[in-house]
Amino acid sequence: MSKLFKSIAFGLLVLIMIGCSKENNSISLDQNYLQVADVVEYCQGSCNETADWEQSKTLVRGYLRDVGNDSVWQDNQEKRRFYLLDIRNGFSLEVRVDGDEDLIFSRLAGTVKSDLIFISGIANAVIAQEGSDCTKGVVLLVKKDKDIIINLE
Amino acid sequence: MSASSFGQTSSFVQFEGGLLRNQGGFFKLYDGIVDIGAGYHLTLTRHLEGGLDFNLGFLNYKNTPARSNFYRPKLSLQYTVHVSSRVALDPVIGLGYSFIRITNNEYLYASTQHGLNYAARLKVRWKSGRKLDYYLFGSYDYIYLDRDDSFTQLNSFRQIRLFAVGLGVNIKSGVYE
Questions:
Q1: Chain A residues with CB inside 8 Å of B109's CB?
Q2: Residues A142 and A82: beta-carbon distance below 8 Å
Q3: pLDDT in the model for residue B175
Q4: Residue B109: which of A15, A38, A88 has the nearest Cβ?
Q5: Is the Cβ pair B153, A37 closer than 8 Å?
Q6: How far apart are CA B88 and CA B123, in angstroms?
Q7: What fold is seen in the domain B11-108+126-174?
Q8: I want to staple B70 with a disulfide (CB 3.0 to 4.6 A). Which of A13, A106, A118, B57 is the partner?
């Protein structure tokens, strides 16, 4: 019986190893609207290499962060940015306005917290340096108000 | 012949509770709260028990209404190493199918994901010689979620790793060892 236990334990270990060694898949950023968490997790990497997602058209969906907080939104508008939130796990994606600022912010001003926002933009790499560690993260550049859809209206 | 005819415990029910931790992946911003569990095991030989376990784990995302509950039923096989007359080590392996309920009440959001669950654990058990045996446990669960592209398209997010440590009790029937 102890032989049986060892055999099953070994089999289970192999299954776990197979599961753990699965490489992250390549995903298409511009085919469907992806969750914020997928984009944030996928679009990162080392500063030493250029990744496939950089400067790619990217479709993403999420909820606006800080809706109803006027001072935050005023600051957002001054800095020409806002954040999309993944309400399932708290991941946030910075969206930078790189175009029709007034049209984009007036479009967002009419939203409520529960509105699901769909954005088409360009994934742009940003660098985070901590000591000798250098990593890349992503911000999304959006140019036109028409690139933002609210609740797939 | 039954296990009890050899002068052994023939079955036991276990109850346990502990602290839960998630490692990386989709729930990396979450904190663990508790893991509670119960199980029923039959003694197969003096060293081997098999049974059904059910664990329920709770994770929450700090300062938000986001919650995730992990329902983890599994079949398990436990091997007993009698270290001394009072102490036993029980390595346990398990295979099950888990369900994860993710909610965010602020947005009226709810989703259930599921997948195969491989588990390994170690119990350090104090053999009382009476009806109740107490133990410390450490456990590791690896859940590989079924594919759901609307939930995630990343393999790394389909892999969930949970650690738990805690205390439990075996309530035995048959001859107490």
A1: 87-88
A2: no
A3: 66
A4: A88
A5: no
A6: 8
A7: Porin (2.40.160)
A8: B57
